[in-house]
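Case 424 in the screening queue. Each case pairs one protein sequence with one candidate compound; here the compound is iron/sulfur cluster. For every case the pipeline is the same: read the inputs, emit a complex structure as tokens, and attach any notable structural observations.

Predict complex for case 424.
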Amino acid sequence: MDAALKNPCELEIDLFCNGLRVDPSCNLAEDARKLSRIRAGLGSGLEVVLPGPRKDLWMNVPVEEDFALRSPYTLIKRGGGYLVRDGRGGQEYPVRIPDQPEWYTARTSKGTEMCKVGVLQGTYLGIYISNSCTYWYSSPAMNCRFCTTGSNVGVNEMADKDVEDVVEVARAAREKSDAWFVHFNTGYQGGKDLDLVAPYVKAVKERVGALIGVQCMPTLEMEKYDWLVDLGTDHFSFCYEFHNPEYFQRFLPGKHKTIGQETFFRALEYTSRKLGKGAVSGEIIAGVEPIEDTLRAIDYITGAGAFPTVCIFRPVIGADMESWPSPKYEDMLRVFRHVYEACRRNSIPIGLTPNIEVSLIVQPDDTRYLAPPGLPTRLYDLKLAAMSLVAKPLFATRRRPRRIAVDASTPPAPRGARPAAHAA
Ligand code: SF4
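Case 424 output:
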């Protein structure tokens, strides 16, 4: 039996694949953030921090799904602290369990419980701004097959987010949890996705100040991205999930019928050119389509100057894919080694934004723990250190509140010709 300790990123990957059992010694009701079954459901696990010499890794470990109940890993409370024990070799890893932020149970001035407006996922504030994704309400339903949003929004969180509520929650998260990144997500809103998110972006940028990310269904109306940037958006992410067109069609019937994979590519490329290297991300799920397709996706995303946010497939309770197997550790290790190599090869600036730890994924900068020793790795380290010096004052300026003159209620007029087609 191999009793070698895993490094923090290897452990993170294995925990995403296997989940974690919770020993009766644990007192998570008092010590941990409550489990939040919101949005797609991918953040429905336990928030855990894996300490490491280079950086601590934040992750959201599956604890309730069937595969997690069979995990070789157990969370144990010992001597006032927590550790994860691997039952296969007896290895033990000290971990930290982040507290539930005190503002979760506070109420906005309109009386809304703050955690029903937004929650921390790692160290950033995630807000699902609108009515549940309309893919859930077509007949037959066109929801993405891994998702449980239709069962969560309106039940576990508010269906319609009020702008004032959002501003107050963003302010509380910034002041009390040092959360400087606010991420807005909409699901599919019939093509009005970017229009809907605009007033929230402007209000938070003007009145709170933060780095702002937007994750909406893409459009070919590129002028809307220019508008969102003028309103204060710092980052766009595009969840196209599967690179293989057949998997895209089969598992994302709504995205296939209403948007098409090509639109994701064009919007990603446009915004990446506009905002610069490393400001945009392409989000994919690893562990469903063949690994070679996932590797191709990573090459495509990094080649476009974006960074890959790779989510290890989680067969979430209540999803159509609930009974699918969780991915194999060895496959995922291969994927994340590739993430590191592709980011290095394309000089993608990773890990430069201050205090943004995303617990739902293995972040690209987490994969530094997987880097092979040698000159290319050392040169990339030096490049990132130099970029970090330049980026620091830039982020400090961008996260300050500032007056925005642009009108958030009126989308720009169509600009006419659309950008040329792309072949990924
Ligand atoms: S677009 Fe897909 S993943 Fe996103 S909320 Fe809708 S069904 Fe869920």
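Case 424 observations:
- The two ends are 43 Å apart (CA to CA).
- The longest strand covers residues 235-241.
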